[in-house]
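Quick one - inputs below.
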Amino acid sequence: KNEVEQSPQNLTAQEGEFITINCSYSVGISALHWLQQHPGGGIVSLFMLSSGKKKHGRLIATINIQEKHSSLHITASHPRDSAVYICAASGGGADGLTFGKGTHLIIQP
Amino acid sequence: EPEVTQTPSHQVTQMGQEVILRCVPISNHLYFYWYRQILGQKVEFLVSFYNNEISEKSEIFDDQFSVERPDGSNFTLKIRSTKLEDSAMYFCASVPGSTGANVLTFGAGSRLTVL
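Output:
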């Protein structure tokens, strides 16, 4: 069974700061998903990674398969980035995702 | 942009009652999922559904739970004889292919409160 750990659990930063959220997992995976959950509860997929790096706007996600580690970076952070960021591991196929506990990010103006 | 639609958004029920949560996945997606999130806890996988049958289920998904796709569009989660600990947000998700190669699209969730 895969164990997915995230750090930090909580992060408060000032607007404009560079943000890094880390995720590690215990068992080899097919892909690592980064998700965003807003206060209302809705979940939005940000990235699906199986190797290397992906970028979308101010968000960058990286994964190191050998080290079983992924990071999510936010450049030029903004208060609207405040949310819970969750990483989740996929074994592939129809496997359900195994979720981390999430990182609660607050960006202060 | 295509959406996954869930109904109801919030349901309150008495302990012991049966509840049906409904989902309309994105039409050309092949895999469908139910997840739940108890308040303050992480999201947990319940069940995946592919080709009109359960593909995988977690240990949470016991005989109290069932899923079906009765009409080719709706994807339902039935919870029989609800318990207090079934109170949670239930998310439906769909994906065009393997989660090893595709992002999931989540519905907005159905909040279940069992009294």
